[in-house]
Structures are given as C-alpha cells and as structure tokens.
Amino acid sequence: MAIALVEEAVLNGLELRLNEEVLDIKKENKKFLVKTSECEYEAKYVVNAAGVFADDIYAMVLGKAPDFSITARRGEYYVLDKQEKPVVNRIIYPVPGATGKGILVVPTVYGNVLLGPNSESIDDKTANCTTSDALATVKKGVNKTVSNIPFDKVIRTFAGLRATGSTGDFVIGQSEEVPGFVNVACIESPGLASAPAIAEYVMNEIMGQEWNFANKQDYIHRKPYLRMENLSNEEKNKVIKENPDFGDIVCRCENISRGEIRQVINAPAGASTVKGVKKRISPGFGRCQGGFCEPLVVEILSKELGIPMTEVRLDSKKSVILTDRTKSV
Hints:
- The protein is of the alpha+beta class.
- The chain has 8 helices and 13 strands.
- Strands 5, 6, 7, 8 and 9 form a 5-stranded antiparallel sheet that branches. Strands 1-2-3 form a 3-stranded antiparallel sheet.
- The protein is globular.
C-alpha cells in the first residue's frame, strides 16, 4: 500500500528524496530550514511523520523536549514456509492484553504463515534485530492457541518497531509553539487502516486552513505490476514473445522473472536496493530466502541503475553486499 501511494505521488509531481538523515530544523521568517545529511530545504509546512523518531524531530524545531515522548516497542515474528495445507486458514487471536492484540497466527496472501509478535519496550530505536528470548516467548504464546505448529518449516525470523507514545493515543495536529509544523506521531495500531483518514484530516483540517487544496484535474494513476503468475498460459506466451525477459526465471521459489524485476526497478519511485525489489515483486520471499536469486537481483540492479555491483545495497546506504572482486578477470 505504501509503495503504491508513493508511486502515484511521484507520477503526479512529488519529488522523493530518500536516505537523508534530518540533522536540524529551524524556523526563520515564516519558513522552515531543514538541514539533512545531503542538502538543505526551505518549506512553508513540515509534516513530521518520522515514526519512532518523531519526538526527536519535533525537539529539533522546539529547541527542547516536546510534550510527548516515544518508546520503541519491538515485535518479533517467525515465518513458516508455504504448505499445501496451511496451519490455519484465518487469523487466530488470543485474548488481548495491556500491550496489544497478543501473539497471533496469521495466514498471509502469499501463502506463508506468520507467528507473532511479542511486545517488548526497548531503549534503542534502531534495534530491529531478533533475540532468542523473544522468539521463545512467541513460540510459547502461539502454542497456547494453535497446536502442532511445524517449527521445522520456519524459513525466516524478523522484527519490527512500533512507535509507542506517552499520551496513549495518536498525536495529530499543528504545533502551538511552532505554527506550520504538523505532528503525525505515536501512530500505533490501527495506524495502517487509519492512514488515509489521517492524511485527509491533515490536508483539509490543518494545512487547508491556509492552503486552498483542489483535486488535480489530470491526475495520473499507476499501472499495477505485471505478475506472470496471474496470467493464463496463453497470456504468458504472448508476453514472453513480446519480451523474452518475462520468460527468464530469476527467483525459482516464487517464480519471478527478470522482466518482472526490471519493471519494478524502472517504475515511478522504482526499487534501488535488493530489499526494495523484494518488497515490490517478492524475489527472496521463498524457501531459500534469496540464496539463489539474490546475486542475480544484484546483477540486474547494477545494470538497470547503471552502477557497479559493489554499489548495490541490500537496504540502507550502510548495508554493503559486495566490496570487490575475489578474482581478477
């Protein structure tokens, strides 16, 4: 959903700037000066939607601690491999507790099953690593609601961080001390479901007081990615005849072709990292977790982006995959 919305925004004029750490924000002469690790920007409005760091960003422009604080709450998951008969065919909830809905068993649209999350408040807002103790807690929790879970089919574990606010609710509004600075912070569950309404509220009720927003008359909609798995054999043959890359399978687990990977790299707000490709079209989601396809994805990114393979990243700028050749040609 997030990627689709960003693609539509780019198609309709958004300039997207990624991998830029915000270092400082000041307001001078009714405009904001935003300094990042790469550039400086001027803005009339700043919308602070920085997740677990939203309180830190707000503190920059205030020059002091804000009236809310955010704690990172880590949740960890197991991912089960696809099976002919999944463990469950609907979401299984325990009785909710003080920290959330509890540890769930969740079938996904891709055919896998997720087990988790736990809920642990941590001090480090960047610590999205898994821990043996937390995964043991998840295992114990799901065994209370579903029996005979095949833990020998686990293909991955991962963790995510939720922005838990000190207020006990969403923080959405313009700063009284710094007009023009809009906080959209402390967005926990049901944040995803609430996101469209939050955006509409910020645009119409907060920023719309000074700006007269109007619907774009020539609005451009994105085209969904071509997914070969959704086509009939006749349709597949037609596509491959027009572009043989769609018949060159790169990810054997998920049956993802070179053509499908190239299209998400060259899309609006296209993928520029291995994880960016993975989250759009799913190579690496399968049983081998990229053991076969990841080197090929790196090669395709290098070619499509026009950069050396040593500059292709897994995710962030610091996530180096290759440093040099092991042998001279």
